[in-house]
Amino acid sequence: MIAKVVSKNFDIPNAHTLEVARANGRYASLEKLFCISPDETICEIERSGLRGKGGGGALTGEKWRLIPPQSSKPVYLVVNADEGEPGTFKDRQILEFDPHLLIEGIICASYAINAHHAYVYIRGEYVFWMNRLQQAIDEAYAAGLLGNSVFGRDFSLHVTIHKGAGAYICGEKTALLESLEGKRGHPRLKPKGKEPEWFFGNPTVVNNVETIASVPFIIREGYASYRAYGTEQSPGTMLFGISGHVKKPGVYELPYGTSMKRVIYELCGGIKGDKNLKAIIPGGSSVQILRADEIEAITLDYECLKAHGSALGTGGMIVLDESVSIPEAMKNLFAFYHHESCGQCTPCREGTGWVDRILAKILAGEGSKEDYQTILDAVDTMNGKTICVFAPSVAFIAQSYLKKFPDEFEALLRSR
Amino acid sequence: MSRFGFNWENEEKFDALLERYPDKQSLMLPALWMVQYQEGWISLDAIRFIAKKLERTPMEVYSVASFYTMFQLQPVGKYHIQLCRTLSCMLCGSKNIQEYLQYKLGIKVGETTPDRQFTLSLVECLGSCGTAPCMRLNDAYIENLTPEKIDEILDGLCHDR
Asked: Which of A94, A127, A134, A183 to mutate to probe the B interface, most B CBs <10 Å?
């Protein structure tokens, strides 16, 4: 079940140091990289079908193509390491155990889009992981793998770590860029057509850590080797983080299309205390919840989860056993969303707080049947009326909790 | 006029960072971090200092600083404990840990001990869901928390109590 594309060196002691990393294949892709053109590099990624691992699942090659090949302005690569989605803890594994894989991926991606400066935006809490990556960057500079002549070639690349400061919304790529520009992390309006992102008006690509870390394998082994994993539409592998009520929580690299049930009951050893499973939130907290009876047929790929009314998201699965009160879990998440709404759009800023307060009232035993309907009305107002996808996601998850577990809410409501 | 100033180390760091961004406005977050590490928190005086350095208005710097949860606009204790409250940690018992910390420190969430040694905060998902419950003690992550582990760590801190 386990695959070793990104996580190959995770168990090797000291693989975070350049010496051990190189002895275990890091930077081996560069030899091949500099023999092919940037255009061919993008072609290879396009053929591999690599999809973004930060939650959206957009095609990476398509993103890179949006950068004008002969841009008169400087091009930037921004790596999103603002891992903040509840239930997600995969990027830190790459930063901790194999930071040189990320740097190697940054070199490949920057070469493809002709970027000469890459920023890694790391969430402010990840101080240990920031230091890990900085040590690796320093080693790479000293070894001539970064700097004015990367790998002895006529290609310059600098990498700078940018420290976030505890705003969940900065994981949204345009909010991240605003933050990188020294502003509040407010998502930007999306353009009508397809265009790159912009950093101070310069064309920019924003990719997740794991996406970039998947690139060296594809360059080194070829797109077909990557496609050997996963499914036709979701090729390759992903780091799945499983947390909550399982015996062996952790991060497992799996090919797309793996059975969810096997992951929970075989890899993770089943439910803690051998209790019954109640529900799974499959892709970070911002996707619709699945009842235990729904997971039977589920495979971990974008298409299957979409067909079941949820999403693969970041691959961070939260497992809830029979003892969990769903209204309480929902309240926990709404307190999160209320705190993390950036406040730019009224439906989101007010709606999250409103639902949070109603849930508190229901949990205190003071809710009425009307409150149930008020939540549905409030989230309906949040859906599709805001700048970014934060509010629609929150609306969908609220609907899923209420519709899939109506009994639990009704039991708490006073019959008036 | 601002009385606050960077120490020489931060001055050097600031100048080195200037070369790494296309616009000095990008140094907003790095500069706020430098202040916080130097002083423990970010005063209005320091905000005026940053505004001058970045050629922005103090209000603009304040608006950014107040947006981000990790920037402390009030002084906090020498040890800032930030306990994760989000779902995976809650499922693994963070509420018990919160009660234990409150009992042990004699303060509630959001408070600082009278001797200014400890501040206790609840924070959102720290990205330690597989090793929940989790807290940060200043910049260090402490995972798989139990009351025993908290005893061991807090009792081992050299503080003037």
From this structure: A183
